[in-house]
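Thread title: Can someone regenerate the structure for this chain?

I was given the following input by a collaborator and told the matching structure tokens would be attached. They weren't. Posting the sequence so someone can regenerate them.
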Amino acid sequence: MKELDVFRYLKKYRRVIAGISILAGIAFYMIAQFYIQQYTAVTVIEYTGADASEGKSPDNTPLDPSEIYGTNLISQAMQKLGIDYTDATIDDIRMNIQAEPIITDEDLQIQEAKLENGEKDYEFIPTRYIVSFNCGVENGKEYPRKILNQILQEYALYYGKVHVNTSQAANPVSDISTKGYDYLEMAEVMDDTLDDIAGHLTEKAEWNADFRSSRTGRSFQDLKNEFEFIRDAEVKQLLSEILDGKITKNRDLLLDKYQNRNNDLEISNNAVSFEVNKIRGIISSYENAMDEFSATADITKENDNDVEDGALRNYVLPNVYDDWNRKAEDDTWEPVDRTAEYDQLMMKYIEDRTLYEENIIDKEYNDYILDVFANAPVSASQKTQNETLDKIERLAEKINALQTVYYETNDEYNEYLGGKNIAVLSSVRVTERFPILIFTILIIVVFGALGCAGAALFGRIEDFIEYYAFTNKVDGLPNRAKCDQFITARNRRPIPESFACIALKLANLQSENARLGREAGDRMIKDFAELLTSVFTPSGKTFVGNNGAGQYLIFAESLDHGQVHAALLQINTVLAEKAHDRGYDIELQSGFACAGDEQCYYIRELLSTAIKRIGAV
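Best answer:
Regenerated them for you:
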């Protein structure tokens, strides 16, 4: 049997090992890249508000990065990107978003130093966070970038709306013609609405006069001017036309409404008047007490000014000053409310009195409307009503359109405020979660190593099979079964012209066995086999075998007539020398045939020709 030679096995199966390893690597790469790989979109944000280092938002609520992956924000982001719920669900996206605080070694050292210095209540509050989003590869590499960018935009808008608190005015004008108002009431609603909007815009213009929307091209001051122009020019003109023409849908119903308003105002003022009179009574009692105290204080003024000051402090304004005689347990001053009860009383009086006067003004206006429409027709003509309604609807449409611009400008302003309080420190970067290429190389290496081990094992098994099934045990050459296998495989196709077939036979083997013994005969066979394989070295193009009938067969793909003749002459010469040295006699018979010389291109016919010529050469 052949000796163990790993390199021989590897050389034999090198193409199979390389092919299987590469195919395994390609298969793994394709499966991993399209089914296992994940993309991760990452960015860094920082809360930059004034109180962010204390963990607070501008509205004094705690910072909460988990708002980034709130259900409402993800839903809005999906709608903006046009992502259908069959492609991804809110939970799919929400569960794969993370916001982790960035805590550096320097931050930990500062915290440790603070605690060592006795600041037990010190707690480091991070303001920077890594925001990441993981997803599969089915939607492409740009998908996670778009998702994370849109969610951060929605978060900035949400943060500006909720935590910076820049609400926008309501718009009751949108469906004013369907609410059952009379024409005068519609005009009043428009006037009041425009007043409210102008008030909101005045505040916003004061907060940031330099802001101008990139979407609408307007600033808050521009919008304020436009709303005020509509109110002062068009709405006032509409009110004037309605009052001058006494235009109404139903005079009696309109008069009842304004009379009811007066009744409500009268009830309100009766209640307010009671409160005002009560407060006046308290103030009068206070003034009387002050007069009595002043008379008493005048007597003692010349004797002790300090007594007067102390009496005034303790008797008149006990709640105005700090009580310096009262300290806390840790010997620190405790401030008290500086607002005196008298001051609170006066503020309540001013508030009630203002409401009372406003109600009087509103009542006078209602009386004016009642007076104007007292002699008006029961209802205006249908033509006049239609013209007035058309004007109201056109005006409402103009207000609604401008209100839409206002909302869009305000939304962008909220985004701007969110951006001012949330800084995105890096652009969204998309990376592959798994290094597929490195894993692929490892797979190729692993399969290559396994292939080498398998080749060595399979090659050795093949050697065992070759030895026990296809090897002659005496001379170590391929046996009859192997010869038949070789001939059958080559008989399927024509052989080339350079193909040669040689048949050899030891003619006196039996007589030498009888004369010298079986062991000497086996020695003769082994010497002959070694000589034969040294002259005709077995390879992929040369086959040397023993057909079991006392004949040795040699098939060579590239031997001509002269080369065969020379090889046989060499064998005979060397064999004669070896026989002389060993003390035995060998009679070698041979015959050969070349395909080109014989014009025979099938191996069985060529072999038959060679066997027939044994002893003729």
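The first strand starts at residue 38 and ends at 47.
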